[in-house]
Amino acid sequence: MILSKVIAALGFLAMAAPVPPVERARDAGVIIGVLEPGPLNAITDVDGVKVGHVTIEEGKDIHTGVTAILPHGGNLFRSRVPAGFVAFNAFGKFAGSTQVVELGETETPILLTNTLNVPEAAAAAIDWTLTQSGNEAVRSVNAVVGETNDGVLNDIRRRRVTVADARRAIEGATGGAIAEGSVGAGTGTVAFGFKGGIGTASRKLASTQGGYTLGVLVQSNYGGVLNIAGVPVGVKLGRHAFAKWGDRDTADGSVVVVIATDAPLSDRNLRRIAERAFIGIGRTGSSFSNGSGDYAIAFSTSPAVRREEGSAPTASVAELRNEALSPLFQAVAEATEEAVVNSLFAGKTVEGHRGTIERLPVETILPWLTSEDR
Question: Where do the domains of the chain lie, and which CATH numbers do they carry?
Answer without folding.
Answer: 23-308+318-347+354-363 (3.60.70.12)
